[in-house]
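re: that complex we talked abt at group meeting.

here r the seqs, copy pasted straight from the sheet so there may be weird spacing, ignore it
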Amino acid sequence: MMAEAARAQPRQQGGWLDLPEDIMYDILLRLPPKAVVRCRAVCRSWLRLASDRSFLLAHHRRQPSLPLVYFILNDGRDPEVSESRLTVFDLRANELQTVVRFSRHGNGWMARDRERRLALHGSCDGVLLLSSDDHLFLCNPTTRHWGRLPPLHRDNTIAGLYSHRISDDYRVLYFRRHEDGNYYYYVMAAGTRKQRLVSRQVSPVHSSWHTWFARHTPPVLLHGNLHWPPVSSRPESIAVFDTVAEVFRLMPSPAVNVNNQLVSNVKLLDMEGVLAMSSSWSETFGDDGPSRVDLWFLEDYKSNVWVCKYRIELPVEDISRFLGLLDLWTAVVVSHEGDVLVDLMNRLLGYDREGNSVANLPCDCSLLEIGPHMLKRSLVPHASLGMKNHSPNKPPFL
Amino acid sequence: MAPPATDAATTKQEQQHAAGGEGVEVGGDLRLVAECGTVVRLSRSAARMSTTLFDMIEAGCAEGGIPIKGADVGTLRLVAAYCEKHAPHYDPVASAARLRDPFPPFPIEFTPASYAVKPVTQLDPDPHGLEAWDRKFISDLPDNSALFNLIIVANLMAIEDLVDLGCTAVADKMRGKTPDEIRVALDIENDYTPEQEAEVRRENAWAFED
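got the structure back, here u go
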């Protein structure tokens, strides 16, 4: 440090040039993604610092994992045009940041409208797997880089997006039911665009209601394995897909109550490298939503030791104030500190693990859905996302 | 026993002599010497915040004047003020964990809820008033030079918390600004040709939109 300071030729005493480069690195690490990119245009040494791959990886690691919230807004003027918006909800800042925006005609619920709709199938390392009109895209919403993937036959359901450690490429795991009644799992690699059969199962390994459920319970990627939360038909196991060996297996789940509803009360999360499970439930029968959320951590991955770290009591009376007559609410933990996101029809509420209110955001929209996915922003470039924002044929949501 | 007592007494005398006979006791304040020779005193408990000084105290070579190369008196006094203010609440383990890992590990023990419905209140996030003090400390700095010097000296002395505070302050000055505004705010020379700068902006047009 001292030697570097001595070697620098300061334009003036105490100028920024005297700052050692690793201090400058530390400062840039603290900036949000947009500010980091703006710094590249300030001067040449900052371009080098703010473009360095290991810097960008460190910057990505520092970003918070924020829950993605899906909206459909109705522009009152024209009922035929609606805007889908995918946003991230920063609880502590009580603000929504738009990630992706998509306008379309027709807001019906018919099958063809559903397909034309923007759909999110996976989120990994700051990259999203999105589909619209049967086209499949990989997209980094932070850098606006994107890549197109070959479309999948519509009988297929996507089970997860993951990054394959060894080839450093993104892969999509998907499945469909064949005439023989079995479920065939395939993997498509973004780089080679090849689709391969990897497994044949008697029933969908990771879900019971398959199509709907698969979209609403994305897996968590940790240690090269994809993990899905337990389902009501098999509450004692977590389904695991080894992305290297490309085989499925089961691992024991902590003792949680798994409901049998469309929106599960159990969710898996990646808490800074530790597999965690958020399990919500009602202490009182007849409540319109969960009053408690338990947060479990898998302390020891190899020997499967699960510990219930937090029991978060939600202020039911407080939440009920915002409820309409037939409304329900769902609650899920979204951060390693135990922040809980409560989803009401037209409002997002956030509580810390002590049950204190940290966020309260009314939303004027016709549909609000807390997505099951999280986004951890990244500026890291990737070969499979080689298309820039100004490329032709760019997806409609950029 | 006689010999150690004698040794101790001799050592103390030697140290007092080395310190110019100013009667500095073993276990008293440290004497930091700025570039110009002025001495800035720092209590032992405050000196703990500097890893460099802490190591020196442990090694027993923190007696006498400790020159801080390249540090002017003003900056050194600011550093000392920061350390004296934060010393009573300094937790080296928490500090190291927080800075190394921006998402520190959760505590092992959980405290079960003691009552069913929690009051909806905001906890006091700054119980010792340190955050408010830090904000004023930074805003009282006269100019960017003072801030950069503070970071440089804190870095030299390995006072992680102060380096963290300084870096965050610089980052705050940069947030939301255009590249031109950043150059003005931090007095940075633009070494791009217009074509090069345009190229950088084009590559990442989304960041320069608003």
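couple things i noticed - Residues 105 and 272 of chain A are 40 Å apart (CA to CA). The helical segments of chain A are 2-7, 21-29, 33-39, 44-51, 53-62, 111-116, 210-216, 316-320.
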